[in-house]
Amino acid sequence: WGGGIILYRSYALYQENKSYDVLQGTIPHFNLTNMEIAYTINGEKSDNPFPEQGNNYYVEKVVCSDGVIATWNDELWGLVNIKNEKKSNKIKCEINFVDKNFSNYLVINDQSLKKIEHDATDQTGSYATTDYRYVGATPNNYVCLESDGECSDDELYRIIGVIPTQKDAEGAYENRVKLIKNTSYGEYIWTGSTDNQSNDWTKSTLNKETLNQTYWEKISDYHQYIDPTKWYLGGYSAPAQAAHTYNFENVYNAERGIIAKNDNAIYDVRNIGLMYISDYLFANESEEYSCSDTSTCGGNNWLKISIPSVNEWLITHHLVNGHTYVFVRMNAGGVYFGDADHYSYITRPVFNLKGEVKYESGTGEKTNPYKITVES
User: Fold this and answer.
1) Low-confidence ranges of the chain (pLDDT < 50)
2) β partners of residue 329
3) What is the pTM of this model?
């Protein structure tokens, strides 16, 4: 079939029939009056009119009954390539529209994002069991937060993933785009003082002064894009030896757990943080979800950066070997731990974008990074 085909449309699930144009398809031995089109918005029934082209929605998926396959076409704003190979006489297709924000855009349009399923954790329960991450050595995940002109290397950020996140202690979870600075902000000590010999992130001068004061003021033009984040601070244990295998899921669960060293806090609400161990691990192209800290953790991993003889702070504290140990991404690519009150290491700020941030342009390549906008 070509051209416009008038079918039944419903304002909620298969109710209150209205006309709807299905624009192309092959429906053998089928009476068109026996096809119904229903829709939802963000997975929920809606009493609003059928979304019009040029609105603030994407189509996330189309699900039809009886094995019928149909594809949504944004340019035609209708279903195309409709196939009814079982020759069913009664078909129902449901179209799910989702808000046109940056996180939905990435999940729907960027096929290089890897979907990862997790078990429920102590802090996040079942609310953060599915996320989408960039993996491998060279994903196209660059973002430029500058609204005008070209981005310098210092102004580029990269997307860790689209991850369910809270923006306050008891807040709702929402899929938010998590960014990390593409280059180091500098080398800093964790505590800044031998009077504060603690690996508690909430007490760290790197947290309170360097990142959430000095750096936050430096990026004042970007505040419109950024919401606070609840950073989960459960501790993790690794043996005191150079060779250790990290199971990605075990680390993820520990970070979002309720076990902490001494009286450390188990979460902190701030604008700026650092990447978790699990952020670094899941960026590794591994089907086994495990790696060795001396070799494979930094193998095919875009989050590894090479600056001679300098490690990088992570946000996770160590549970066993002393109260001042914090995990670091080693220059060689592995993960180990360093003393918070002795060393200065690379710092790459991490933050989450507001849920309402919209995609504007770009393909994610370094030469054509994603541009975003916030509606006023």
Assistant:
1) 1-19, 23
2) 312, 335
3) 0.86
